[in-house]
Amino acid sequence: MRRAWPFWKLTLLVTILPTTGCLFRTRTVEQQYSKAPLQAATQKELVEAINRQADKVRSLQATVDIDASSGGVKKGKVTDYKEIRGYVLARRPAMLRMIGLMPIVRNKAFDMVSNGQEFKLWIPPKNRFVVGKNEVQSPNTAQPLENIRPQNIYDALLIRPIDSLEEIAVLESGYEMLYDSKGRRVVQDDYELVVIRKGDKGWFLSRKILFSRVDLEPHRQYIYDEQGTLVTDARYADYKDYDGVIFPSRLEIYRPEEEYEIILNMLKVEINKALQDDQFVLEKPPGAEVVNLDRAQPNSAASLPK
After folding, report:
1. Residue 283, CB half-sphere, CA atoms under 13 Å: how many?
2. Is the Cβ–Cβ distance between 174 and 192 less than 8 Å?
3. CA 45/CA 41 separation, integer angstroms
4. Distance from C-alpha of 215 to C-alpha of 93, rounded to nearest angstrom
5. How many angstroms separate the Cα of 103 from the Cα of each of 84, 86, 108, 262?
6. Which residues of the chain have pLDDT under 50?
């Protein structure tokens, strides 16, 4: 049987150790907190704010500057695409069209459209016409940008309302790391609205919407698939008033599985302008090579132009 130390030995050890400085050290821990005044809201109020904004913004037409990048750890390198002028058309419940122009010459770099179920992507410099269904994923690891789905941009651009029949929203108090005017990291409280959705195989984590406590606007949205994998990380910044509607003027969309990022800087935004069905029609140009992303594709050397 193991014998216990005599009491006098334990007392001596406790007395000596702090003086040696070998095993114990006390350090001061300072945490910088943001001094910005914070607002409060309930779960119900945040859900109502999301649904109210979704009802208020029925369509959007914007002129944007696009910065994009593709690649990362999986590919072993990153390719940047800068100074692409673009035009975005979006109409609820699921219509989106985005056109990108080449730098300087302003020839069309790409044109893509989605009706919420199917998408088309035209790449004139490569004479490629890419088609497929939004829910079918067959990533081309050699060219991540050819995996862009307009629906992914739509879901980040216009945050979907929370459906009380199919979704449950739970509020969590969290915090975010920011930088002050001197470049120091500071902590600021936020709200995190966790959205659980009813799927074909049961309930699953669908989204997390993070609200700044300064303005109570969504500043980040995580979107997951039914397996719990993060598929989209969207950030919203620089909210502005567009004819009475508060909307972010900067949107960053990151797709970790395909390893691409798209940044939209809004130059001009028109809310609820009438958009016609034919503005979301994209026909295959004569002679274009058709690539169906619903099927497995060999690695291709074609991509969006640099």
Report:
1. 4
2. yes
3. 6
4. 27
5. 6, 10, 10, 16
6. 300-306
Type of residue at 236: Y
The DSSP secondary-structure symbol of 158 reads S
Rg of the chain in Å (alpha carbons): 25
For residues 290 and 297, give the distance between their C-alpha atoms in angstroms, rounded to a whole number.
12
Residue 6: asked if its preceding bond is cis (omega within 30°), the reply is: no
Q: Give the contacts of 136 (CB within 8 A, at least 6 positions apart).
A: 293, 294
The domains of the chain are located at 43-292
Q: Give every CB contact of residue 274 below 8 A, 6+ residues apart in sequence.
A: 59
Give the span between the Cα atoms of 42 and 254, in whole angstroms: 29
| pLDDT value at residue 16 | 58
Lookup: tokens for 195: 């959205």
Q: What is the pLDDT of residues 179-232, one digit of tens each?
A: 777 778 888 899 999 999 999 889 999 999 999 999 999 999 999 999 999 999
Q: For domain 43-292, give the CATH number.
A: 2.50.20.10
Question: Is-contact 122 112, C-beta < 8 A?
Answer: yes
Question: Could you tell me the two tokens for 279?
Answer: 């503005």
Q: What pLDDT is recorded for position 182?
A: 73
C-beta of residue 131 within 8 angstroms of C-beta of residue 291: yes
Please check whether residue 187 is in contact with residue 213, taking contact to mean a CB–CB distance below 8 angstroms: no
- How much is the pTM? 0.82
Instruction: Say which residue the tokens 């119900």 belong to.
Output: 44
Compute φ and ψ for 103, nearest 5 degrees: -60, 145
Nearest in space to 194 (alpha carbons), one of 183, 184, 203? 203
**Given this model, what pLDDT does residue 305 score?**
45
Of the candidates 197, 218, 250, the one whose C-alpha atom is nearest the C-alpha of residue 41 is 218
Residue 55 token pair: 């009802």
